[in-house]
Design a protein that fits this description.
The complex is a heterodimer of chains A (132) and B (288). Chain A has 132 residues and is an alpha+beta fold. Chain A contains one helix and seven strands. Chain A starts with a helix and ends with a strand. Chain B contains seven helices and eleven strands. In chain B, the strands form two sheets. An eight-stranded antiparallel beta sheet of chain B has the order 3-4-5-6-11-10-9-8. Chain B has a three-stranded antiparallel beta sheet with strand order 1-2-7, with no helix packed on it. In chain B, strand 1 and strand 2 form a beta hairpin. In chain B, helix 4 packs across helix 5. The longest helix of chain B is centred in the N-terminal third of the chain and has 16 residues. The radius of gyration of chain B is 20 Å and the shape is globular. Classes of the chains: A alpha+beta (132), B alpha+beta (288). Chains A and B meet through helix 1, strand 1, strand 2 and strand 4 of A and strand 2, strand 4, strand 5 and strand 7 of B.
Chain lengths: 132, 288
């Protein structure tokens, strides 16, 4: 009986441990220490990234604009991604003018982008802003 | 020649005759710069540049001074004509601060001094990133175009003097940390901020590395940066500054802000060791 209880307790501990590990893994990023898009007051996108170690390259794979519909973010349009690629580096920086893509209609927008370091890609979003 | 310029000439003469020590010379030049910025009609830019040039040469063994005189003059004059306001520097002006003001003006960030602005830290809803965001309360700032070209200037080097030449000013000397050797510098000047990333290696063991990501925002309202993290971030006080400690995989990280700057330091050393380094940087204990 005590063996059974011990086994059950061990199973619970192991499962908890696995759950916590997976949870932590989804909350941090192995490659990136920082991957930021800032949507500026002038409707520009400022891209920057710092990796946890020197990587072969860092680039932005794709970019898009999202619009807040009052309850969730909706895809609005594709944006041209920065053509900059940094090689053998820890960091990345790019700046794009998106004024012609973002309507000045009192609605709230944010930029999404896929950061790519040596093929490891993560989606990240900018701060949101309302333009009029 | 006016009285202030006479003072500058007197300082030059004192330097030549070796009457003044370096700290005394620096103090006098900084006082002169401070005086210029506190004048109602705006500073005499030629005089400020001359003082900065002298400060630079005194501190750098006559290394070539990288000046932005023309752009500086243009930015200063348009600023003065536009608003007829003055710039107050409350504390004695350090070389770094004075030079930073030049860069801030060059990049069109002069507006930041007029308004109430601040940096705030928070986590994203899913806790995946720790965010620094700038806020401003003056509605004039909203939607106002930032002067300057919409591009990024980049520079990578292993030599600190080249960093100084590229930026046009010295980095805070406290980032040169005991027992850590700066191996590589990456610099980015964006219309919204200046980013300096320094890769260090421990002197005793070059395999142990550390990264400093320093961002100086030229327009606080456009300040936005996020850092990856796990869930266990804590805020601790170091030298009277609130420092956010977190970790991301094998790395411990420390994050803190100044008026317009964000410091992010990360390494795979123990948190206690990282905290000691943060203390050195914030507390001003310079590398010997």
């Amino acid at each position: 009986m005590s063996k059974k209880i011990f086994s059950i307790i061990m199973v619970i501990i192991i499962l908890s441990s696995i759950t916590m590990t997976v949870h932590a893994a989804t909350l941090a990023d192995e490659y990136f220490g920082s991957a930021t898009i800032a949507l500026t007051t002038t409707e520009d996108g400022s891209f920057s990234a710092v990796t946890n170690f020197i990587v072969g390259y860092i680039k932005i794979d794709s970019c898009w604009l999202q619009k807040w519909n009052g309850s969730s973010w909706q895809y609005y349009c594709w944006l041209p991604a920065p053509s900059d690629i940094e090689y053998n580096t820890l960091c990345y920086g790019a700046y794009m003018d998106y004024a012609s893509y973002i309507p000045n209609d009192d609605c709230t927008y944010r930029i999404g982008a896929y950061f790519n370091a040596d093929g490891h890609t993560i989606p990240r979003y900018s701060n949101s802003r309302t333009f009029n | 020649m006016n009285t202030v310029q006479d003072k500058l000439e007197q300082i030059k003469a004192d330097i030549a005759s070796e009457k003044l020590t370096y700290p005394q010379i620096r103090e006098r030049l900084e006082t002169l710069i401070e005086h210029e910025y506190s004048k109602e009609g705006g500073p005499d830019v030629d005089l400020v540049i001359a003082c900065e040039d002298l400060l630079w040469r005194l501190g750098t063994d006559n290394a070539p001074f990288v000046t932005h005189e023309d752009q500086y003059k243009e930015a200063m004059r348009s600023r003065i004509e536009a608003s007829q306001r003055t710039r107050q520097i409350k504390k004695p002006v350090l070389r770094f601060v004075a030079a930073l003001v030049v860069v801030v003006l060059l990049l069109g960030g002069a507006e930041m001094f007029r308004h109430r602005e601040w940096l705030e830290q928070s986590n994203t809803d899913d806790q995946q990133q720790h965010i620094i965001q700038g806020y401003a309360v003056d509605p004039e700032l909203v939607g106002k175009a930032i002067a300057g070209e919409k591009e990024v200037r980049k520079f990578n080097t292993t030599e600190y003097p080249e960093v100084r030449d590229f930026l046009g000013f010295d980095l805070p000397q406290t980032i040169f940390i005991s027992n850590w050797e700066p191996k590589h510098y990456s610099l980015y000047i964006q219309p919204t901020h200046i980013q300096v990333v320094v890769l260090y290696a421990q002197k005793d063991d070059q395999q142990v590395q550390m990264v400093l990501d320093l961002r100086l925002f030229t327009n606080i309202e456009n300040a936005f940066v996020s850092y990856e993290q796990e869930l266990n971030g804590t805020i601790e006080t170091v030298e009277n500054v609130s420092v956010y400690f977190s970790n991301n995989y094998d790395n411990n990280a420390a994050l803190w802000t100044t008026d317009n700057g964000v410091y992010w330091l990360r390494s795979n050393i123990e948190k206690a060791g990282l905290k000691d380094i943060v203390q050195q940087i914030i507390g001003g204990k310079q590398h010997e």
